[in-house]
Amino acid sequence: MSKGNVIQLTEAGFSKLKNELEDLVKNKRPQAVDRLSQARSMGDLSENSDYHQAKEALEFIDGRLSELEMVINQAKVVGNLHSTKEVGVGAKVKVTIGKSEQVFNIVGEWEADPKEKKISHESPLGKALIGRKVGETVEVQAPAGKVEYTIVGIE
Predict the structure, then answer these.
(1) CB–CB of 134/128 below 8 Å?
(2) Which CATH class is domain 92-154?
(3) Of 30, 96, 105, 144, which has fewest CB within 10 angstroms of its CB?
(4) pLDDT tens digits, residue range 47-64?
(5) What are the residue ranges spanned by the domains of the chain?
(6) Where are the beta strands (DSSP E) in 44-144?
(7) What does the alpha-carbon distance between residue 95 and residue 29 come to, in Å, rounded to a whole number?
(8) Of 64, 75, 56, nearest to 25 (Cα)?
(9) Which candidate, 50, 129, 121, places its Cα nearest to that of 97?
(10) In the prediction, which pLDDT does 123 show?
C-alpha cells in the first residue's frame, strides 16, 4: 500500500484499531521491554532463548505499532455516510443466494472478517455490491462457479 492512499474504515473499525494501538503502547510494549531487560540481565545472550524470544516479541509489537499508526493516519472514517438507497462502506446488506438469505456488512479492507460476515469493499463480492440498489442482482465468480446475489435490503 503506497503512502497517500486513503484507507476507508467504519467508525467501529477505526475505534478498534485505535484501542489496539493504545493497548500496545500502554501495556504490551512496556511488558515486552521489561521482559527483554530481564532476559538480558541473565548473562550470556547467545544461549539465552528467553532473550531471543523477548527480542522477537518486541520486534513484532513494534512492527504492528508502525502498521497501525500508518493505517490510522491514512484512515477516512466513513461512519453512517451511506444511504439506504445504495450499497456503500458501512452498509449492512441483505442478499438472497438461491433460496437462502445472508446479511453482510460492507467494511474497509482492514476490518474484513468473513467469519463475522464483514466483507471488504475491495473483495470481489464487495466490489460487485458497491453502488447497487435493492432489487439488483450481481454475479460473482466463486471457486464453485458463478454465484448470483440479489439485494433485498440495505441498512
Answers:
(1) no
(2) alpha beta
(3) 144
(4) 778 888 999 999 999 999
(5) 7-77, 92-154
(6) 75-77, 92-97, 100-107, 118-120, 137-142
(7) 43
(8) 64
(9) 129
(10) 93
Q: Give CB contacts under 8 A, 24+ apart, made by 53-60.
A: 57/32, 58/29, 58/32, 58/33
**3-state SS class at 1:** coil
Long-range contacts of 37-42 (CB under 8 A, 24+ apart): none
129, three cell numbers: 455490491
Exposure of 9 by Cβ count < 10 A (0-12 exposed, 13-18 middle, 19+ buried)? buried
Q: Rounded to an integer, what is the distance from CA 13 to the centroid of its chain?
A: 7
Q: What is the pLDDT of residue 79?
A: 64
Position 80 scores a pLDDT of: 56
CATH code at 7-77: 1.10.287.180
pLDDT at 142 (0 to 100):
84
- The Cα 17–Cα 146 span in angstroms is 34
Q: Is the pLDDT of residue 2 over 50?
A: no
Name the one residue in this structure whose C-alpha cell is 509489537.
Answer: 61
Q: State the cell numbers at 128.
A: 460487485
Distance CA 71, CA 7 (A): 7
Cell numbers at 152, concatenated: 433485498
| C-alpha cell at position 4 | 497517500
Please give the Cα distance from 90 to 93 (Å, whole number). Answer: 9
